[in-house]
Design goal:
360 residues; 7-stranded mixed β-sheet; Rossmann fold; alpha/beta
């Protein structure tokens, strides 16, 4: 048993999502979205480095010492997997660990709308799950892949950095590939995947032009591709993808993306006030002909209107989802205001509304 495993045990007992270990500070846990110090001594650099190096693969230690930061996965069988990041900072080494539960929560467990589960049965196209770091994108994607794994007879390839949720092959054959261990990069893995007879491809992060381009190409050539971006709404997601390309190529990409996109899910996590835990608010865009036309014509600013009029297809705006959670009494007004896109809708619920600095 590694020395650091005691912290992971505490993390599990406290239902924490993240563990922070930083030289020059006591350890801390993120519980229900907030940082809480552990009653433990200030960690010295040499002590922490020895603790961290005990669980890191040799090639990852070498990469960390050369570059100053590294990602990898760590697992305690029967408890959880952890997405690990080491980094150098002013006082020495630091590390953050995100817990990935061993058990994959189903769409039903998460309370996801039915339309989300139906995305697992799409024959082809691009589905994007977006949101800020720590918003539950991986959990939502894992639930969708789980539906496909149980109900289809296909080949699923996941490309991640590092591997998070591990799906055991059920009706599908599932292969997990980790960037830096099983493949050089997201783009090289995607290029290889197109020759590996996949039906479904999960791209853990669409972070550069080449990866985005290959994902769109895969979706346009008969594959079902799931990917993630760090954007806050469906409209901004489409804009982000287009803006990655040189201006001379953007008209062509708009057309290709309009043909290939199937859905965009933008989500945030909010702290529940009626019980312990968190809940998700989702914006859902389904690629109807009207939505495709807006993408093709560069009128993404009109996408919220399409979402508002597309409820019969399962569409919803993020702010409507947040308002529903607020009306149910699941979340507080302050959190609703902080996470909403149109904050004006939620000012009336605040006891002490902040000054709107945008009007200054």
């Amino acid at each position: 048993m590694a020395k650091i495993d005691a912290f992971f045990k505490l993390m599990n007992e406290q239902s924490a999502s993240d563990l922070h270990l930083v030289s020059g500070q006591p350890p801390a846990l993120r519980i229900r979205g907030e940082m809480e110090r552990i009653k433990y001594k200030v960690m010295e650099n040499d002590e922490l480095k020895a603790m961290l190096y005990e669980i890191a693969p040799e090639h990852k230690i070498k990469e960390f010492e050369e570059t100053g930061d590294v990602d990898f996965g760590y697992e305690i069988p029967g408890i959880a997997r952890y997405r690990s990041n080491f980094f150098m900072q002013r006082n020495g080494v630091g590390a953050v660990f995100r817990q990935i539960p061993e058990k994959i929560m189903t769409a039903e467990d998460l309370g996801l709308p039915n339309v989300i589960s139906k995305l697992a049965s799409l024959p082809r196209g691009l589905v994007l799950v977006t949101g800020p770091t720590g918003s539950g994108k991986s959990t939502t994607l894992a639930a969708i892949i789980d539906v496909a794994n149980r109900t289809r007879k296909d080949h699923i390839i996941t490309i991640e950095d590092p591997i998070e949720f591990v799906h055991k092959s059920q009706s599908c054959i599932v292969n997990h590939r980790e960037v830096g261990i099983h493949t050089r990069s997201f783009s090289s893995a995607l290029r290889g995947a197109l020759r590996e007879d996949p039906d479904i491809i999960l791209v853990g992060e669409m972070r550069d032009l080449e990866t985005i381009s290959l994902a769109i190409e895969a979706a346009s050539t008969g594959h079902l591709v799931f990917g993630t971006l760090h954007t806050m709404s469906a409209a901004k997601t489409i804009d982000r993808i287009i803006e990655v390309f040189p201006s001379s190529e953007q008209a062509q990409i708009r057309s290709t993306l309009a043909d290939g996109i199937r859905a965009v899910i933008a989500q945030v996590l909010l702290k529940r006030v009626d019980t312990n835990g968190l809940c998700a608010a989702l914006e859902i865009l389904i690629a109807t002909p009207a939505a495709r036309n807006l993408i093709r014509e560069g009128k993404t600013h009109q996408i919220p209107s399409v979402i508002q009029t597309g409820r019969k297809y399962g569409m919803q705006l993020l702010d409507d989802a947040v308002m529903e959670l607020l009306n149910k009494g699941w979340i507080g007004a302050d959190d609703a205001y902080a996470k909403a896109n149109d904050k004006g809708r939620f000012r009336e619920f605040l006891k002490d509304p902040p000054a709107d600095f945008t009007e200054a």
